[in-house]
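Sample 3 of the quickstart, ligand 2-succinylbenzoate:
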Amino acid sequence: MKLKSFELRRISLPLVAPFRTSFGVQSEREVLLIRAESPDSEGWGECVAMSEPLYSSEYLAAAEDVIKSHLLPRLFAQSEITANSVAEILGPVRGHPMAKGAVEMAVLDAELKEAGTSFGSFLGAVRKSVDCGVSIGIADSIEELMETVDGYIAQGYRRIKLKIEPGWDYAPVKAVRERFGDIPLQVDANAAYSLADSRQLKKLDAFDLLLIEQPLPEEEVRAHAELAKIVSTPICLDESITSARAAADAIAMGACSIINIKAGRVGGYIEARRVHDVCDASGVPVWCGGMLETGIGRAANVALSALPNFKLPGDTSGSDRYYHRDITDPFVLKDGRLDVPEAPGIGVNIVKDILDEVTLSEEVITA
Ligand code: OSB
Ligand code: MG
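Result:
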């Protein structure tokens, strides 16, 4: 494919409710979107970097800068590119997986639209719909949390994930278990603990959780292996898994028995599929994480979630879990599931009027 131009568009969407994690409170989602244009096609990419570098070191303004200054010039230097070649062309630039992943996604969407192939069939989907879970932020009180969980269960979500941090762990998990019984339940600490907290984390063993996600810092893979010997709840890694190779290493070390896959965190959907394959070959089940995506990223995440080793419900919630109005036709839960889009590329329609309304800035970069 020949590249004509890339459009970089910053948008801001208010969240239906503030989302509190151990790394801060989010009440709006600022997102960088990329539109790749070729002579015969166009494709969309969503950069999952957040406004501030609190989940990982990447953040929106830095992603925008590295894309403009270092990534696009490398792509424009090629006379023809394929989505499969993007990661290698961008390889000399260290780090910035979310920025690279967004660029690759835009190119891949354009390429698949031209070929008439959906993301799902490109990636190897084996299901027409996927089981959905929901990620629930840290609440102001146990009573407020009970109401929130109750509402999501009523909407049909097939798994509940509670954000935890020191001071908000044992009591809320116990309360949810006692009130809602045997529901599929898991927790996510976003690296808020240290190995010295292992006695507190071990108390969660009483609640038969599906998993505990990323209790310790990103770099502390070995410490997760130590923790795994102490707690019986399965350890799942999110932040630490930055590539298929990192996944293979973490598994070999005994640091996790489940992996959360986020395409942006590993540099794109092609590497995400490799993470899936490495885990599958090791007997490690995976599930699809979320980054409060718009319908653009959600469409691709739902397609990815349809691969065979996605054995647990993902953080692929309905559009109304996040936004009053999404920039695509909304994803609506049916019996706790979302349908995998079947149209070419990401397979979801972008609502141009809404997109324009929420746009903060727009820049077109030409070869
Ligand atoms: O750690 O999974 C996480 C949101 C932003 C950044 C990190 C995480 C999350 C979530 C929400 O848990 C997932 C979602 O519903 O998109
Ligand atoms: Mg997480």
